């Protein structure tokens, strides 16, 4: 007898599009990592984008600091804990696992890449890729994927929602990191792409290891 499939965290319709995006994002991470390995100066694109951001008024610094807080331990832990609690209240344990695994593996990967690439800013502070940007992009991707599955969105609408969430969240945090002088623009791009690559792979892995999305046989 075949029962209803346990809900997965990666909608089947999105596996193809997100797989392609994840592959491209991984290539960007590697390419930028090789380009800026063991460097400590901004590239041409970095200098241009930093100049544009520096033109913002000083009042925007408070907005940047508020965004930055979301990537700090207290802010990020609060976001993750609240989302995990919501998943458990909705009786979605696989979703709760995905929230922790998706964000955790992304941040862990970003930290590992920092050590391997060795790019620095303001002395010996490792900067590539941006961990703050990687975190918030991953968190937004996780939430968007869960919402897509919950609403039963199709391939086009689901892909648009997920990528839009990543772009908005990653762009906002990236802007904050550049405005605060914490990262070069290419660090921010690397952080966002790290999240795109790792989160999509984690979603597939969670479904694979928990058998979510597959029919239950009795």
Give short descriptive properties of this protein.
8 helices; 2 strands; single chain; 218 residues; globular; mainly alpha; two-stranded antiparallel ribbon
Structural class: mainly alpha
Give the total of beta strands. 2
Helix content: over 70%
Radius of gyration: 18 Å
> Mind summarizing the main beta sheet?
2 strands, antiparallel
- Per the principal axes of the C-alpha atoms, what is the gross shape? globular
Strand portion, in percent?
Answer: under 5%
Mean pLDDT: 90
Enumerate the strands of the largest sheet in spatial order, edge to edge or round the barrel.
Answer: 1-2
Structural overview:
The chain has 218 residues and is mainly α. It is 72% helix and 2% strand. It has 8 helices and 2 strands; from the N terminus they run αααααββααα. It has helices at residues 15-35, 44-54, 60-71, 73-89, 93-117, 131-151, 155-179, 185-210, and strands at residues 120-121, 125-126. The protein has a two-stranded antiparallel ribbon. Strand 1 and strand 2 form a beta hairpin. Helix 5 packs antiparallel against helix 6, helix 6 runs antiparallel to helix 7 and helix 7 packs across helix 8. The radius of gyration is 18 Å and the shape is globular. 42% of the residues are buried. The model has no long low-confidence stretch (mean pLDDT 90).
């Amino acid at each position: 007898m075949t029962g209803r499939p346990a809900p997965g965290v990666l909608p089947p319709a999105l596996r193809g599009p997100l797989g392609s995006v994840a592959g491209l994002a991984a290539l960007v991470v590697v390419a930028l990592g090789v380009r800026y390995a063991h460097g400590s100066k901004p590239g041409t694109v970095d200098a241009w984008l930093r100049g544009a951001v520096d033109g913002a008024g000083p009042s925007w610094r408070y907005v940047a600091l508020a965004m930055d807080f979301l990537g700090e331990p207290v802010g990020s832990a609060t976001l993750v804990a609240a989302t995990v609690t919501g998943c458990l209240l909705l009786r979605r344990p696989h979703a709760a696992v995905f929230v922790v695994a998706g964000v955790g593996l992304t941040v862990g990967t970003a930290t590992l890449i920092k050590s391997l690439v060795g790019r620095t800013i303001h002395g010996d502070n490792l900067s590539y890729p941006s961990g703050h940007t990687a975190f918030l992009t991953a968190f937004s991707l996780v939430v968007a994927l869960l919402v897509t599955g919950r609403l039963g969105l199709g391939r086009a609408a689901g892909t648009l929602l997920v990528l839009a969430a990543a772009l908005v969240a990653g762009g906002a945090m990236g802007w904050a990191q550049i405005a605060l002088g914490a990262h070069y623009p290419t660090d921010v791009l690397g952080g966002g792409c790290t999240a795109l690559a790792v989160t999509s792979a984690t979603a597939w892995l969670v479904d694979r290891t928990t058998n979510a999305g597959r029919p239950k046989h009795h």
